[in-house]
UniProtKB/TrEMBL annotation:
Domain Thiamine pyrophosphate enzyme TPP-binding as annotated: residue spans: 229-334
Cofactor(s) the protein needs: thiamine diphosphate
Thiamine pyrophosphate enzyme central domain span: 82-189
Keywords: Decarboxylase, Lyase, Magnesium, Metal-binding, Thiamine pyrophosphate
GO cellular component: cytosol; nucleus
Protein name: Pyruvate decarboxylase
Pfam assignment, any one: TPP_enzyme_M
GO molecular function: magnesium ion binding; pyruvate decarboxylase activity; thiamine pyrophosphate binding
InterPro entries named in the record: DHS-like_NAD/FAD-binding_dom (IPR029035), PDC/IPDC-like (IPR012110), THDP-binding (IPR029061), Thiamin_PyroP_enz_cen_dom (IPR012000), TPP_enzyme_TPP-bd (IPR011766), TPP_PDC_IPDC (IPR047214)
Lineage of origin: Eukaryota, Fungi, Dikarya, Ascomycota, Pezizomycotina
Family stated for the protein in its record: Belongs to the TPP enzyme family.
PANTHER family: PYRUVATE DECARBOXYLASE, PYRUVATE DECARBOXYLASE ISOZYME 1-RELATED
Species name: Scytalidium lignicola
GO biological process: aromatic amino acid family catabolic process to alcohol via Ehrlich pathway
Amino acid sequence: MDQTIYVGMSGPVRKTYTALDDERTMAQEIDRVITTCVQSRLPVYIYVPTDVVAIPLDAFRLATPLDLAVRNKNRAIEDLVVKKILQCIKDSKRPAILVDVLADRHGGKDLVRKLVDLTHFPTYGTCLSKGVIEENSPYFNGIYSGKVSFPGIREAVETSDLVLNIGPLLSDSNTGGFTRNISEDRLVSGRITQAYIWQRIGRFLKPNDIVFVECGTAGFGMEDVTLPSNTSFHTQIFFSSIGFSVGAAFGAAIAARELNSPGRVILIVGDGSLQMTVQEISSFIRYGFKNICIFVINNDGYSIERAIHGQHQGYNDINVLWDYQRMLEFFGANSTTEIKGQSVRCTDIETVDKVYEILMDKLDYPWRLSKQLELSSGHSPETKPKL
């Protein structure tokens, strides 16, 4: 089989590639591709034939750090753009800053924060850029997602006479279904509901936490949470890859340990998504991570899929007999391991300090999800006929 076909498949989306087929240039090529990846913030491809994996290479290149600095190659144009922006700011009366995820992806988070502190402009984020701006800043006003926004947020952004939109990523899930207004309907009751749980989880978070949120109902619910200072927030709503958060949180735990990060790794995942990649829980225990908290949203299956299509169809059901209270023990967490199993099952979150399994109704949806479906399909999940 011609393995190089995968190189060709990556062509439309990659910035560069290399095939490690020459022992004399392998190390140099790896450095080149990694440098291009970091500087461009674009995908790259390294083809590694199986018969070269064990070839020893001289390690002398490791003594010199890679030059990963991003340099402006057209300063004259940049100066003109900056002058134009400054003039627009001077002429505006109601300016605003809208920060999106590509500001972070291109290494501009610190610069954007300085801009906000310098200008004092009302500042907004998107669902993908949560955590880029300090959400306890006096200038941060909330998340702008078109009609899928808190009342007042959309009006405030869209009536500004100047919007500095930094790092935009205009995908459907990041723009309220390409709408870029709805009043929030909050429900407070004895049961744990979508309208209640997310602000409660928000109070559980601490500065420097590293938060991974599954792209199901949790992804929509967490948009309403105000993050503490220096919180790192990650979700996969761009590709909607369910199960991604579990393995990604494990990778983050490894990185946090290596970097001596002071924050906890927080995983918020639904029961359906967890069953896709649950084996990575074993990896947390194998490596003895202690500063981890896992929230399992147990709503009897794929609630986000029920909202989209097939509320009562069997294909949105899963095996609900899993005992998540014994999950850590099953994977080896016990009195002889570094990580101790600590599990709580609850229907009333106020009775516990830590929550691992949260029981909610399978047809209870975050208001943002209901609104986005209403905009895209013409009706909300609650009014859809049984299939």
